[in-house]
What does this fold into?
Amino acid sequence: MSIQFHTLGTCIGAEVDGIDLREPLSSAQAEEIHAAMDRYAVLVFHNQPLTNEQHVGFTRALGPLENTMGNTLRAAADHRLPPTFADVSNLDGNDKPFGQDDRRRLFAIGNRLWHSDSSFKAVPAKYSLLRALRIPSKGGNTEFAHMGAAYEALDDETKDVIEDLVCEHSQLFSREAIGFTEFTPEERERFRPVRQRLVRTLPRTGRKSIYLSSHIGTIVGWALPEARLLLRDLTEHATQREFVYSHKWQVDDLVMWDNRQTMHRGRAYPASEARDVRRTTLKGDAPTVEQAVAA
Ligand SMILES: [Fe+2]
It folds into this structure.
């Protein structure tokens, strides 16, 4: 049976049928999925009761994995999952939801701002593959916005302004935006900003996209207020409803998205309820721009 892709009725996303992700992926199937990712940017697979090993196996069939250690405030003893996973759950090492005011939770809810995964790494992420094992009784949707469609809808003057701009990205900036500013010296060092182009080109299609993320703190060479206002305007433009798909999770969904041409955000849900979602991440091919030489 061949793989079928059904569009979600917007400029972004498709549901996928005719594939069991527990089975090994042929190279022809992997190519079909890459082509569909180029086209739809978000793919939704329902009813995929995978083990962690099967989740990792499917990811590896699409490319090399990113190591996600050190991306959060979890201590080593808190880790429920191997380093091949980003634990996007609200659960501690004992499988219990973090307290409402737990520092690890307050840092983690920064992912409710629009962002692109690992844009704070010199080689940023390609795809993210998020699987739901337990979901709360309400809320917790993930929303995706298409940065290629958003780029194409910009006026020519704005396209010219942003074409060669370079931004600084760090989790320090996205947390500062929600008032989380207390970091240890070790964390500040670990979350040192990296540089990324603001306009990216998808290698296989040549399609341009706006590489936005709430991890951006400034535009290199710009005064801070002017930089932040442009970034706000672009984000407001790029997250209009016409560019957005909102995913309501079911247990055993796996949703895969292309971080090079989308932003996403998690939505709120009751803090006392468990939400067990776990993510593998495909490493990007290369930096988007040269990094500054360290002073
Ligand atoms: Fe994310």
About this structure: Residues 71 and 86 are 8 Å apart (CA to CA). Residues 111, 115, 117, 264 surround fe (ii) ion (CB under 6 Å).
